Amino acid sequence: MHRLLNSTSRSLAGLCGVAGASLLLLLGVGQARAAAAVYPAGAGTFSGGAQGWQVTEASCNVAIQCSAGGGYDAGNGQPPGSIAANTSVLLNLASLFKSNVTLQSPDFTVADDGAATLHLDRQFAPGSLADLAPQAIYTVTLIDRSAERRSVPLTETIASGSGFTGKDATVSVAAGHTYAISIAVETASSVVGTGLLAGSTSTRFDNVSLMLGAGGNGGGADGGKGGGGSGGLTDQKLLSTIQGSLVAPATLKGRRLFVKTRCPARIGHTCHVVLQGLLKKRKAATSTRVVKVPKGKTKRIVLKLKPKARGRVVSRKRLLFKETVEAGPAKATLYKHLELIKKQG
What we know:
This protein has 345 residues and is mainly beta.
């Protein structure tokens, strides 16, 4: 009987071990499935290049006095680096102008079915043509090459200059299908030129990506206006919501750098903020601070300059900051340049 009990115990232990291993395997599979996949390659950050995006159309209705084009813009972005649709006008233009530029991503193939979040940060800069009251209308098309279908998840009219603003939309994708993202931009004036104005406008796009998985539950055809709540906050929604969280200017007093950050109320959660000043994207200028900011509140953060960075920071008019925010189930990282003012310490 004793041997039988020992044998039974060993058998039960073996079964428990197998069951435990199976459970861990299932949990691992579940975690792997929950991980977000971001398309196309490079996630549309345009850090150092256009990442395969190309101009597929460029035209203007006034043949000689107006030209259209586009491509990589190294100096502007969130952080710097973006793609742009540009319109240039010559001095002798005395009529309305309208240009069309289409930017298109490289093809990419998704690995799973489901809802995905299409995200972008956009900026319209009317430049010296502001007196002609130009506006930009951009339309984002998701091209399903496998099914030979097109859908338009996002379109927007921008009637005045603006900083980079995040927009989200929800799309559905099919496993194994090949897709491309197309952004068509129409730029037009609403005031007739006098022939004395010349210059150019730019509509810029950064962080253009399709997130499938952990980030694929949010957004909407409203362009990301849905804000928070414990059930609907995704990484992409949080990123678009915190675009204006860092408040300019940053103030330098001696070796201390004072920066204000806010936690937008529509996030619906307390913001856990990690902030650091940078000389460039991977070179620190200050210490790192971790703070909690209640929803709807603003907090001043004090960063200490690194001794070797002080001279380079003092000589600058603007400084780059890296802000990582965790709120509820979501996490997002933002890079932003702020005006830098100096005061006696």
